[in-house]
Structure formats: C-alpha cells, structure tokens
Specification:
about 260 residues; S-adenosylmethionine decarboxylase; 10 strands; about 30% strand
C-alpha cells in the first residue's frame, strides 16, 4: 500500500472515492446524593445537550472540516436523550464553507448516503448509588478530501470527557493521475497525533490501537483523578459524610467503562 506524508499534495484523477468514518464516543460522570439531584441532573443534560444544541455542535464541525450542510434533522426524546443528523458535502464551489440547502445535482446526490454527521445522547440516572452518566456518540462519515480527524479537539472542548473512545476507519480508494490506487490520502501514525498536547495531558490512561495496513485506528482515554468538586451536582456536598464512598464508586464505574467490563 502506498503511503504519503501529510505535507505531500497528491495529484488525483477525477473523483476521490475514499470514505472516512470518525466515531467519537464519550462518557461524562456525575455524583448525586438523592432523588431530587438525579432529577436535576437529567434536566441539566436535557437543557445543555438537547437536539438543537447538538445540531449547533454539528454545524461547527462542518465549518472546521470544510463541509457544506445540505440538510438537518433533529429529535428530542421523552424522558431523556436527543439525536440529530446533518447531511453534508465536500462540494464547496469556490472553496467557501456554506450553510445552506444546495441545489440538487448529480454531484450532490452522490454524497447523500456517505457524508453525514449523526449524534445520539444517552443520559443515565438509574444507578441506585447515584452515580449518573452521560454518553454521547458522534459519527462523522465523509467521502472525498474531507478529513474528519480535524474536528477532534473541538469535540473534546464541547463536552466534559471523562472516558473517551475514538475509532477511525478509511475505506475505498482513489487514483493518482498515473492510475495507481490510493487507499489513504493522509498518512499518520495515531489518532493521538491530532489531539492537542494539553488535552492529552488531562488523561491518565491512554490506549492506542493502530492497524495501519487495514486503515483502522482506535484511541481510548480515561481522565486523571480529580477531586469531588469536578463531579458533584451540588458543590455544597463536598464535605458530605458519604463523599469518599461516592468517589470510590465513581472511579470504579469509570474503570469498568474504560475496560468494558
């Protein structure tokens, strides 16, 4: 398989048929002391990460990766959760990002089943010990020259990420002007190459899986240990008699999620 450095500009013949899929799956945790705090947590999540706000995040992703927005759908759920989908295209005309419904053309239509951003939220306040969690699953699937990895740092900054799973897969091929098949048009070693050092420094456990020959990459991260202030629904509970027990259960939950056990 031919590989190229990110500095090399490939001369391609015609349309780029590469499909690149970035899956960003994060967990955020919270400690609640009673039923009322659990209800407040669910309300907080529903307000901060409702479908409309998730769409705004997706719109900014499109701007960062230079994709035009074709159509948007959104849905809130009862009692918790939200979803959104943004259809997008890398057809930019003069290279300017646009937020508008483009006219339907054969070139645009060929992108509809490949280029999109889907987001789903999964709040959980059912734990008997009051350890609540919020999971977001964002998939960015693109075709052509768009590189969804460019949006990683923005995703970290858009959410409170205690445990993070990032998967990246490239499929299909394009051709150079001389007819050679190219299965990857942006060479790199690890997903972590795209994450800002100050963000990586916040994480204690870092697992990296790189199967370059198969165009498959995965990174798992778990945040460093912080004080209870980071996780409390009510900061007044920092001296609660059960706070040590709650922090033990919180760390146990995070480790279980990180190791998928």
């Amino acid at each position: 398989m031919n590989q190229f450095t990110t500095k090399e500009k490939l001369k391609l013949s015609g349309f780029n048929n590469l499909t690149k899929v970035l899956s960003f799956n994060l967990y955020d945790f919270c400690i609640t002391m009673d039923t009322k705090q659990r209800e407040n947590y669910v309300e907080y999540i529903n307000n901060k990460y409702n479908a409309e706000n998730i769409v705004k995040i997706s719109e900014e992703i499109c701007r960062i990766i230079d994709a035009n927005i074709l159509n948007i759908s959104r849905q809130d759920y009862e009692p918790v959760g939200a979803s959104s989908m943004v259809l997008m295209s890398d057809i930019t005309g003069e290279g300017k990002w646009e937020h508008s419904a483009l006219k339907s053309t054969p070139q645009v239509n060929c992108h509809l089943h490949k280029s999109h951003i889907t987001a789903h939220t999964y709040p959980d306040a059912s734990d008997a010990e009051g350890i609540c969690s919020f999971r977001v699953d964002i998939d960015i699937a693109t075709c052509g020259e768009i590189i969804p990895l460019k949006a990683i740092n923005y995703l970290f900054k858009s959410f409170e990420c205690d445990v993070v799973f990032i998967d990246y897969v490239v499929r299909g091929f394009t051709r150079c002007e001389d007819g050679r098949k190219i299965y990857l048009d942006h060479y790199f070693n690890s997903i972590q190459d795209f994450i800002e050092p100050e963000i990586l420094d916040e994480y204690k456990f870092k697992s990296d899986l790189n199967i370059g020959r198969e165009n498959i990459w995965q990174t798992k991260l778990m945040v460093k240990e912080f004080g209870a202030e980071r996780y409390l629904m009510d900061q007044a509970d920092v001296n609660h008699p059960d706070i040590d027990k709650k922090m033990f259960l919180l760390n146990k939950e995070m480790r279980e999620v990180f190791h998928l056990s």
